[in-house]
Amino acid sequence: MGPRVAPRPPAPARRDTVPQGRAAPAPRRRETHREVMTVIRKLLGLLSLGAAGCWFLGKRARGCRPVNGVVDELRRDAHTAAREISSDVKAVQDRDPAATSSFEILTSYAGLHALWLHRLAHKLRQVGVPLLPRWISQFNRFITGIEIHPGARIGHGLFIDHGAGVVIGETAEIGDNVTIYQGVTLGGTGKETGKRHPTVGDNVVFGAGAKVLGAITVGDNAKIGAGSVVVTDVPKNSTVVGNPGRPVLLQGQRVGIPDIDYRHLPDPVAEAIKCLVARIVEMEKELDEIHPERSGKRKEALRQTQEMLAELLRFDQGAGI
Asked: Alpha helix locations (H) across the chain?
């Protein structure tokens, strides 16, 4: 018999910690990479499914045309798209003093990108492509923060400035040369079907945060003040402010370059209070003429009121309570 071989010592237990001085492995990085690739594969699968469904429905003529027909029609409209893009850029140059060059406008204005993606989604919806227009609309909202339903009808020269939080509903109709600032909603008021969103005329300006709700009409050359909530029709050549919005008619002056100086927007509530105060002053004077002995008492009451008002206004100047 040969010499007896000693058994091997057991392998040391695997340590989960990384010795000091060594770089730790990157399992999280690999896991993140796998998750990203999974999402990309799912998106590609959804796009493939939508194209296949369009082709299937087109073969059976059930509300969708073949993909080749859609592509041909889009190719024929390419020159129209180029003309519209040029018009969009000019609209930005006319209304935004911060725009410095056409290249900056084409690459940096989310409102333009949202408008172009909407035109694509709207065209696909018109020719009967199912589901894909909604995907484009959601992708549009994801990258620009602007949600425009593929069914909305938009005219030429729309300018969405800043754009964050803008929502335009399915049955909304927008005329030419309209300006929309951030936070504007052209929405519905309930679950009714059919026409349920606003119809907007030409040369209309929507201030930041304005909410225009329901199947109402906004006339040409109207201005909707910032933060207004409008639920009734807006006349032509008018300015609407407040909640609920109250129209203040102008003198028929056409809106050219949008004037959105909010310092000079009228305040109907303040005007009504001024009228009441003026009427009270007149009544006080009439009572003094009828009852002269009352004049002294009124002056004393006025003095006490002024003292109380001065005491209250003292805190506006930084005084403590």
From this structure: 27-59, 67-76, 78-95, 102-108, 110-126, 132-144, 268-290, 294-313
